[in-house]
Design brief:
The protein is mainly beta. It has one domain: Quinoprotein alcohol dehydrogenase-like superfamily (Methanol Dehydrogenase, Chain A). The protein contains three helices and 32 strands. Strand 3 and strand 4 form a beta hairpin.
């Protein structure tokens, strides 16, 4: 199983590198969730324990507001944040943190739920260009070398897009000669493809006609009657394109559920309704693919997780299981040797760290990571943390700034060390980023670069 996983990841990595137009470089983390868009890094010779005084710090940068993780390519780190009434795209030297260029443009976004007003999407670096998708839907392309703006699209004005709950939060992806974006436009522009060089629209897809099935069977009767009014926003899950049965498929976990598209022309191959019956809910986890199987999950009101097996031909699927073993909010599960490892739970008071059997959805073990309901200090738990996988271990960042190291073990929780990063505080909702032995940790107001290389 381990060898199969490795071969699959290598094949996916090669496909992504070809699609991005990048030179193969093990140290790059050029997009959301890394080179293979699953939180897995090929880097080795990394730290095996966390010293009591933490990992050596290389540099630190103050940030404006936002929840966007940085991206790294070729020794350049690009981060996306907001100061005042401007969204800022900034490129810095990965070794020193020194600014190489900075670009700004105005924004008037205000979060209706009281969260910060900064961007939610990570920068995407591909083909010598940087793509950013701002909180109110401003999609911009910059030249990576000097920051020159190449084109910009105001998607909220150009498409019929209803007001989203927490702003725009689905990071675009490059597939071949197309930039794929979950816009959430009505009536048939849920996902659009753009020319990455010019920004011109190539196709648009996913609308009401693609949702012919019934809502999930446990919805209350009145919700089942009114279900169509819920298909009005994009989600906070990011797009992925993966090979299934020898064909490239783009998977979009939209507000109303999962859609599989042919990235060449936007043809819908299949869809599966998946969302909570409550209006105040979102889908935020990016789909996880292993072979011909897909895992989707949500933490809202016992929606839980579903494992789907895509049948040959890629036009339909079989549901393998559905359950509450994993209730993923925004972070991504890791899969090793047939087991899923993840921080599960919607809120701080109900978070847990779990190992779940991929075959059945059954929980193998669980550890409580709940925050106390009333506390003036950072509790010694991870809360709803985020994992990345590298060098045979998991690197975790808790939402309160707790850095942890774990070894995957289906029999027990095997933690190898932890350290509260003193400069970080709640909320740390971006997953760690690993590039060329440097570990980037982002909180709400700062970016920290640590030395993650193994030491004697």
């Amino acid at each position: 199983m381990r060898q199969t996983n490795r071969v699959q990841r290598i094949c996916v990595l090669l496909g992504v590198l070809i699609g991005l137009g990048l030179r193969a470089h093990a140290g790059d983390w050029p997009q959301f969730l890394g080179p293979t868009r699953d939180g897995v890094s090929p880097e080795t010779n990394l730290f095996t324990r966390i010293p009591t005084n933490g990992l050596p710090q290389l540099w630190e940068r103050p940030l404006g507001t936002g929840y966007s993780a940085p991206s790294v390519q070729g020794g350049v780190v690009v981060f996306f944040h907001r100061v005042g009434r401007e969204e800022i795209v900034e490129a810095a030297d990965a070794a020193t943190g020194a600014t190489r260029w900075k670009q700004t443009y105005p924004t008037a976004y205000q979060d209706p739920y009281g969260y910060n007003n900064g961007p939610r999407c990570s920068p995407l670096i591909a083909g010598g260009r940087v793509y950013t998708f701002g909180a109110e839907g401003t999609l911009t392309c910059f030249n990576l070398a000097d920051g020159r703006r190449l084109w910009q699209r105001a998607t909220a004005e150009e498409f019929e897009i209803p007001q989203a709950f927490f702003g725009v939060g689905s990071t675009p992806v490059i597939e071949g000669d197309k930039l794929l974006v979950m816009v959430g436009g009505q009536p048939d522009a849920g996902v659009v493809a753009l020319d990455p060089v010019t920004g011109k629209t190539l196709w648009q897809s996913v609308g009401e006609k693609n949702w012919t099935g019934e809502p999930m069977p446990d919805w209350p009767g009145e919700r089942r009657v009114e279900w169509r009014r819920f298909e009005k926003q994009a989600s906070y899950s990011s797009l992925i394109t993966v090979p299934i049965h020898g064909q490239r498929l783009t998977l979009a976990l939209t507000r109303q559920g999962l859609v599989a598209l042919d990235p060449r022309d936007g043809t819908v191959k299949f869809s599966r309704w998946f969302r909570s019956s409550a209006n105040d809910s979102v889908n935020a986890m990016t789909p996880l693919v292993l072979g011909d199987d897909i895992i989707i999950s949500s933490a809202y009101f016992k929606t839980g997780s579903v494992r789907l097996h895509v049948n040959p031909g890629n036009t339909n699927f079989t549901q393998v299981w559905r359950g509450l073993g994993l209730e993923m909010h925004w972070s991504q599960p890791m899969v090793v040797d047939g087991h899923l490892y993840a921080f599960s739970g919607r809120n701080e008071p109900d978070a847990s760290l779990r190992c779940v059997d991929f075959a059945t959805g059954a929980v193998k073990w669980e550890r409580d990571e709940r925050w106390p309901k009333h506390s003036n200090e950072q509790p010694p738990v991870f809360g709803r943390g985020s994992f990345i996988q590298a060098d045979g271990r998991f690197i975790a960042l808790g939402e309160g700034g707790l850095l942890g190291l774990f070894r995957p073990n289906p029999e027990k929780c095997e933690e190898l060390g932890r350290w509260q990063v003193p400069q970080l505080k709640h909320p740390c909702w971006s997953a760690p980023v690993l590039s060329d032995g440097r570990l980037y940790l982002q909180g709400e107001d700062r970016l920290i670069c640590l030395d993650a290389r193994r030491r004697p």
